[in-house]
Amino acid sequence: MGKRSSSKWWEAPPNLPPAFHFPLSALSITVPATVTLPGMWQRLTIFFLFLPIFAAVFPREVAAQELSDGEPEFVLQLRRRGLTELAETHCRQQLAASTSAQLKTRWQLMLTDCHEDHLWSVSSAQRADYVTMAASQITDFIREHKPGRNEDVELQVRQIEFLCVAARIECLQASPIVSDPDRTYAVRVTSHVEFGREVCRQARELLTILQKQIEQYRKELDQDVVRVARYRLRCAEADLLLSQILLGAVPADSLAELQTQGEQLLRSSGEPDRFRVRRMMAEVMLASRDFVAFELRQKNAAAEARTSDERLSALTLQMQAMLLQGQPSEALQLMLDAPAELEIMLSPEVQVLKLQALLQLNELLHQLTDDTKERRDSLQKTVDEFLPLQRRLQSQLTGVWADRARRIGQRFDSVQKVGPDGATAMESITDQMAAGQFKEAHAALIALAAKLPTNSMMAANVQLQAGDLSIKQQEWTTAITELQQAAELFETQKAIDRQSAADLLRIFALGQLWNTQPDKASLDQYRSALDHHIQQFAEQQSVVSAHEWRARLLREQEPLSAARDVIAAIRFTQKAAEAKGTAVTVSADELRRLCVLAELILSDAGTSSSQHVEERIELQTEFDQLAAVVLPTRPVTENSATANRDFVRQLFDAYLLGRVFWKSTSTSTPPADLKEVAQQATAILSTMPPNASTQTAPKNDAQAELQRLTIRADAILRCIRILASIRRLEAETATGEDRRILASLAENHRDWLATILQNQILGTTDKPEPGDRALASFVLTLITAKPTTPSSVSAADTAQTLERQLDQLPVVLSLTAIAEQPAIANVYLQKLTSQPLTEAQTQKLATTLAESGSPSGIGVAGLGRDFWLKLQKQSRPGQTVWFEASLQLAILEHNAGAKKEALRILGVVEVLHPEWGNAQRKQRAAALRAELEKTR
User: Fold this and answer.
1) What is each CA distance from 537 to 457, 563, 566, 568, in whole angstroms?
2) Is 145 exposed, middle or buried (CB count within 10 Å of its CB: 0-12, 13-18, 19+)?
3) How far is the CA of 160 from the CAs of 225, 280, 440, in angstroms?
4) Which helix (H) or strand (E) holds 802?
């Protein structure tokens, strides 16, 4: 396609005076891929053949002498044989090798001719870029080579003519497949219409500037150049006006003005141009729907045709007129009667017109009310002729005509399902959807559904579309009902793939409903729908999304269950690829799933107790198998995967390394092994990105999952080094940097690490391991570190932090006992109770303290007399909180020197409930009484 220029073709050429430089906005409309849904069509009613550009020849005697003999003919023959890219390459090579400005101009003009041919084979998605590239080359050429005035004018005229072709192509792409006599000039705003209008506008501005330039420098220009340039610009102006009319950019009554321009051109045209002018005049009559005048104009044009190309052009125009008048049989007969010399079978346009004629004939037969054998046979005959031709054209055509044939095929398919009226209704609905008129489109779909046969495939498709539109309007309840009905209709048609797609959309709506009203009923309905879909559609592609959605739902509360869903999604994808005989590539989705899986297993290590160790090890083994298959051996298809493949493998190694410290064994790890593992952790850390815990915000889901896993792995590796150092009784300074980084993490990451590390010491106090006290102290540091969030937090964030502190209190009390640092618990309690607590939170705090069996000294300085007195009054004698409050009040009185009051409190409880609620509290109370009596 050639290298796209950095300059803009819509800029004024650099050699123009300042007065002719003009600010034009960039032509930045990107043409998306052509919509391929059945029934898509445009409301443009004039179907036409591209009007060839008026190619009057500038004087070029001198320049022609510099061209090698046969060069123009050689390029022309390449173009006629469809070898456009080869012709382009040849022109570029000759352009680069040429030395004179005049010769370079000739090659640039021939290169533009090639670009014009190539434009017809470019896809819709690429056409805007290709138009910009080709037109910019002329602007760049003028800027770089600074040709003479005459050549400058000729190049700019050719640039405008090229844009005229681009506009006419967009007219063709926006035109309807079937005629609509009630809406002659109505068009919906599609990308083709928008781009075509913009090209027309830019071309008109360039044309106006060039006309002024010609007038200003007329004396410096060759008079023949002026005459021919003016004529060609008038032709281009007429062509642009017709395009604007067809695109709805100007009123339809402009056709009268266009007819006047055509008459003037006809009077001033030379013999070689008369056919082109007369054909344009016939096309104007066709646009006006004046078929009587068209017949006269068309006959005049046919009489002027001198070459086989011109006669073929006259034939296609006549076929278009017949189709517009609803005469498909006559159009097909015209093809059969065409002279052999025209070689109509080689013309893509004629073949597409034949396809359109068969479609129109099929529609006419559908509209007949009599159900005779002759009608049925005729209908079948059109089908038998249409389908093979459609398949052949699909494999042969590219670009504009391929798009046209595809749209005709979509219309034909819709007609077979719902008839012409239903197909038109579907196309109208699609137009409304493209324009963002979802409410109107939804109402039209409901009306269409009422006319369709019950329990038909089309009814199911319409119901599915209605549900999708309800989702677009965020009407979740309506969408759920409609999609449920669609799934049931697809089930009656035994279309399980469509049924699963409808059910998945229904689940999506259920999830959105839960987001808007997060109550238990909505959550249960969403979870139940996911479970049912996974069970019912286990062999359908939709189950992959269902597994991932359920994993997302479970990842916080049930990480191992979520991990099994991710594994199921990966297994299904691999199985589907193997069934198709294709390799599973390391795509962004596959990397994301692997990262999610590893992160989920890591996450469970910080949220569950040792009862999940066996299940976690089983999942670790499955992850290892998946990673071993995918990461080292599969071909890479995305650049992002190339960089991440080895990194994910390293993260997995870090993850396996962490298993040593997850209570997977009851035996202590020898110091030598700890040293070796710490060295391995250091080696892996050195390969990870710097500042893994403070990476920038991810751009997509895959990067987000990889970042989560990165933070987990980085934290695990640093924990390994800290734990190894503690167990080997090294000083804190040996791992100072690791401690600082981990303490700076967000609360959720610190809590996760704290749970992993506390599992290494809690429950083993009967047989302490070396470093338990220091390890408990470090875990307390993680729990009590200041949050990394800004000070200006919301009320909801404050409440969430308070709940976290209450949840962590049992751990803090246990760890302070192991670390023999009651002051930490006192400070923690002081901060906790300095905040306004609800009655429920107060009860939770007291219950935690009561059940923890805190030794004297913990909680005494942290919680004041008023706190315990309030709890004692709020509770009833015999309740756990009442026992603990009474004991804590007695301790406070003892510390204050009021031994008599302390003994009184103990005596009241011992008279009412001598057992103190449990043996441990009774022992604590007895120890306090002994202390009081000893000092009496």
Assistant:
1) 20, 20, 16, 13
2) middle
3) 16, 18, 40
4) helix 795-819
Tell me the C-alpha to C-alpha distance, in Å, between residue 463 and each of 413, 429, 479, 489, 784.
18, 13, 10, 9, 56
Q: Given a cut of 90, is residue 476 above it in pLDDT? A: yes
Cα–Cα dist 628/439, whole Å: 51
Q: Which residues, 6+ apart, have CB-to-CB distance to 740 below 8 Å?
A: none
Taking the C-alpha atoms of residue 548 and residue 541, their distance in angstroms, rounded to an integer, is 12
Sign of CA dihedral 343, 344, 345, 349: positive
- Give per-residue pLDDT as tens, 420-455: 877 777 777 877 777 678 888 888 888 888 877 777
Helix (H, G, I), strand (E, B) or coil at 251: coil
Contacts of residues 75-80 at CB distance under 8 Å and 24 or more positions apart, as own/partner, are 75/110, 75/113, 75/114, 79/113, 79/114, 79/117
What is the rounded distance in angstroms from the CA atom of residue 419 to the CA atom of residue 441? 19
Contacts of 900 (CB under 8 A, 6+ apart): none
The whole-angstrom separation of Cα 638 and Cα 361 is: 48
- Closest C-alpha to 907, from 898, 916, 896: 916
Name, in order, each residue with C-beta under 8 angstroms of 3's C-beta and a sequence gap of 6 or more: none
CA separation for the pair 732, 721 (Å, rounded): 11
DSSP 896: T
Whether the full predicted model's pTM is greater than 0.85, yes or no, is no
Alpha helices in 175-268 (DSSP H): 191-216, 223-246, 254-268
Bridge partners for 636 per DSSP: 586
Q: How far apart are CA 620 and CA 597, in angstroms?
A: 9
- The conformation of residue 698, written as its DSSP 8-state character, comes to P
For the segment 869-908, what is each residue's pLDDT rounded down to a tens digit? 877 777 788 887 788 788 888 888 888 888 888 888 888 8
User: Phi and psi (nearest 5°) for 586?
Assistant: -80, 80
pLDDT in tens, 677-708: 788 888 878 877 665 444 556 566 666 777 77
Coil, strand, or helix at residue 646?
helix
CA distance 212 to 206: 10
- Closest listed residue to residue 112, CA positions, set 53, 27, 185: 53
Classify burial at 790, counting beta carbons within 10 Å of its beta carbon; exposed 0-12, middle 13-18, buried 19 or more. exposed
Tokens of 184: 């002659």
Q: d(Cα 729, Cα 916) in Å, to the nearest integer?
A: 41
706-718 burial: b if 16+ Cβ within 10 Å, else e: bbbbbbbbbbbbb
Q: Which residues of 579-588 are buried (b: 16+ CB within 10 A; e: fewer)?
A: eeeeebebbb
- 586: helix, coil or strand? strand
Residues 145, 104: Cα–Cα separation, whole Å: 9
Q: Residue 182: its pLDDT value, please? A: 46
Q: Give how far Cα 360 sits from Cα of 313, 322, 329, 642, Å.
A: 21, 11, 9, 52
Dihedral over Cα of 805, 810, 815, 817: its sign: positive
Place of tokens 């107790």: 609
The rounded distance, in Å, linking the Cα atoms of 718 and 682 is: 8
The answer to whether the CB of 153 falls within 8 A of the CB of 220 is no
The CA distance from 936 to 930, in Å, is: 10
Q: Decide if 353 contacts 323 (C-beta within 8 A).
A: yes
Matching residue, tokens 């004939």: 361
Question: What's phi and psi for 636, nearest 5 deg?
Answer: -95, 130
What is the Rg, in whole angstroms, of the alpha carbon atoms belonging to the chain?
A: 41
- Residue 716's closest CA among 776, 655, 663? 655
Rounded CA gap, 892 and 890, in Å? 5
Residue 166 contacts by C-beta under 8 Å, 6 or more apart in sequence? 119, 127, 131, 196, 199
Distance CA 829, CA 815 (A): 14
Tokens of 129: 């870029």
Spatial distance between the Cα atoms of 776 and 857, rounded to a whole number of angstroms: 18
